[in-house]
Here is the input.
Amino acid sequence: MATAKTIGIIIFDEVLTSEVIAPAEVFGAASHQDWFVGSKVLLIGVEQKESIVSAEGITIGVDCTIYDDISLDVLLVPGAMDMEALFSNEKLNDFIRTHEAQADWVGSNCSGAFLLANSGVLDGKKATTWFGGETSLQDQYPQIEVVHDQPVVLDNRRVTSNGGIVSYQAAIVLLAQLTTLDHAKGIYDTLTMGRMDEWETIASSVRISE
Here is the structure.
């Protein structure tokens, strides 16, 4: 029997487009399968407005905002070239902490890990960020066990990734955690991800989180 999931992705002006689209496409494709039917992706705005403009100049519509009362099974935070303005947004930090306590999984792509770290939800956990930014994450947040040279890291209901095109890999890995490895492989095939990375490489990242 299918178990419907609600996946929330936080979006804001100057967000990196691929890190929103990748999980939206993976989970959107999965929602058409019997084993994930009824699942949905919500794009959650940080500000109370109907759309945002990404770093690449693409207008993306907002489904709801952090000011709305919503229930999530997964909360994902994408990255941007500059996250500083978000760190002092207490409403956003509270939103992340609240949903971390309630959701099955919390994750980030690229510099989104810095926002999760700033909210305190990566304390005592393994995590990664954009390739080359691992040392900065470790220096700024020594309470995190930062992993270098690993594109996707799972630890205790957290999934973090290098971002960019790796955001697709992270979404497939997370889908396997929410469903099964076979179901995740089906979406991997549907999206012809084999042209990007071998299934064995992605599957090696998949394990049941402690």
Q: What stands out?
A: The radius of gyration is 16 Å. The chain has one domain: 6-203. The chain has a mean pLDDT of 94. The first helix runs from residue 17 to 30.
